Amino acid sequence: MKPILTLAACLPALAACGSTVKNVDPLGQVFPSVAGQSLQKQPVPIPGAYAGKPVVLLVGYVQETQFDLDRWAVGLTMAKLPVPAVEVPTIPGLVPSMISGWIDSGMRSGIPAEDWASVVCVYGADAKKIVAITGNQSPRNGRVFLLDAQGKVAWFHDRGFSAGKLAELDAKARELASRQ
């Protein structure tokens, strides 16, 4: 329990070390190619690992984003979304990159092992690529992406969980899935 508390205390400070990037809407852009690693310690290129099929990415920049992303995850599960959903903790900066193993270990201690494959962490320069296409103002709000089969942002939301936006995402995901 102590490592999680330490992690909880450190992540906001680490995130504060980065610069604030004005929020932007990435709709229609191709998601940047980044190298991630699942909590199972497997490399996962994003969006490459999902090429040829739509995918939802739940991106969080700070630990406090987890509350928002958990609401999205529950909603997506209840809606029986027809595409995979992946949580993408995204932490730019040199220091987080240097201690990524420690941060990942803290996340593993709070997430059931059966869910580790669907949590893909992105650090450092690759995390900055994601920040660049969304911005990081209001970092507690998750960034929810629906990528099409070519990795293009087909739907995006960054203003907190909304049941209406979940229904909109679900409809768009079903439309994209039906094309497969």
Can you describe what's shown?
This protein is of the alpha/beta class and 180 residues long. It has a single domain, classed as Glutaredoxin, CATH 3.40.30.10. 40% of the residues lie in helices and 20% in strands. The chain is built from 6 helices and 7 strands, in the order H-E-E-E-H-E-H-H-E-H-E-E-H. Strands 2-1-5-4-3-6-7 form a 7-stranded mixed beta sheet, with helices on both faces. Strand 6 (143-147) and strand 7 (153-157) form a beta hairpin. Residues 1-17 have low confidence and may be disordered.
Per-chain topology:
Elements: H1 2-16, E1 34-38, E2 43-46, E3 55-60, H2 66-79, E4 85-91, H3 94-98, H4 100-110, E5 120-123, H5 124-134, E6 143-147, E7 153-157, H6 163-178
Parallel strand pairs: 3-4, 4-5
Antiparallel strand pairs: 1-2, 1-5, 3-6, 6-7
Helix pairs in contact: 2-6
Task: Provide a concise account of the structure shown.
Helices cover 40% and strands 20% of the residues. It is built from 6 helices and 7 strands, in the order αβββαβααβαββα. Strands 2-1-5-4-3-6-7 form a 7-stranded mixed β-sheet, with helices on both faces.
Features of the shown structure:
disordered N terminus; seven-stranded mixed beta sheet; 180 residues; alpha/beta; 40% helix; Glutaredoxin
